[in-house]
């Protein structure tokens, strides 16, 4: 990995998080592709990472703590992306996260209201770039960001190679 100062790595992570969230919201609101529940969950680590990075700039004395949080956030992001990719590929069956909330509907009005809501299955890929799903890109990006976070952790701990 390229030798940069810790602040540059943090700036790279911050920039990537903003880009990922911007693209996700543009695809949803500008292009009109509705995300599934797991796609929405996959956005959470990026928002958390932005908060953690901003806090690390504000509170300089807890850098090891923040670098560990970043590692955990991007590890979670990578794991949830692998899980989502497994559902997309048919390797893993859909869970209750992906299931419809229409199971406990009792009145006619509840049923009619639930039909107006658009539910996207986690196994259906609505948007692809170069024939890869956004989940695949998220998985790769999460791994890269995990490795950058590992580099930040190493720098904060003063670990020599």
What does the model show?
This protein has 161 residues and is mostly helical. It has one domain: Up-down Bundle (Bromodomain-like). Helix content is 65%, strand content 2%. It is built from 6 helices and 2 strands. It has helices at residues 6-30, 37-41, 44-58, 63-88, 108-116, 134-157; strands spanning 128-129, 132-133. The protein has a two-stranded antiparallel ribbon. A hairpin with a 2-residue loop joins strand 1 (128-129) and strand 2. Helix 1 (6-30) packs antiparallel against helix 6 and helix 3 (44-58) runs antiparallel to helix 4. It is elongated. It starts with 5 loop residues before the first helix and ends with a helix. 25% of the residues are buried. The model has no long low-confidence stretch (mean pLDDT 82).
Keywords:
single chain, 6 helices, two-stranded antiparallel sheet, mainly alpha, 161 residues, Bromodomain-like
Q: What is the chain-wise order of helices and strands?
A: HHHHHEEH
Number of strands: 2
Shape: elongated
Find the CATH topology. Bromodomain-like
Strand order, main sheet: write it out.
Answer: 1-2
Question: Which range does the strand content fall in?
Answer: under 5%
Query: Which regions contain 5 or more consecutive residues with pLDDT less than 50?
Result: none
Highest CATH level, the class: Mainly Alpha
Structural Rg: 19 Å
Assign the CATH architecture. Answer: Up-down Bundle
Helical content stands at 55-70%
Overall domain count: 1
How many H/I helical runs?
6
- What is the average of the pLDDT values? 82
Class by alpha and beta content: mainly alpha
For the termini, the CA-CA separation is: 12 Å
Instruction: Sketch the major β-sheet.
Output: 2 strands, antiparallel
């Amino acid at each position: 990995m390229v030798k940069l100062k810790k602040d540059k790595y943090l700036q790279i992570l911050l920039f990537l998080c903003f880009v990922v969230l911007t693209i996700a919201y543009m695809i949803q609101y500008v292009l009109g592709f509705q995300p599934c529940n797991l796609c929405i969950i996959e956005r959470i680590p990026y928002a958390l990472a932005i908060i953690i990075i901003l806090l690390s700039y504000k509170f300089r004395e807890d850098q090891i703590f923040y670098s560990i949080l970043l590692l955990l956030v991007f590890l979670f992001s990578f794991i949830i992306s692998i899980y989502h990719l497994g559902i997309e590929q048919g390797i893993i069956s859909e869970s209750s996260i992906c299931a419809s909330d229409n199971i406990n509907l009792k009145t006619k009005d509840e049923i009619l209201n639930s039909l107006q809501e658009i539910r996207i299955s986690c196994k259906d890929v609505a948007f692809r770039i170069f024939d890869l799903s956004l989940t695949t890109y998220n998985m790769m990006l999460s791994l890269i960001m995990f490795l950058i976070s590992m580099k930040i952790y190493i720098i904060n701990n003063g670990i020599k190679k």
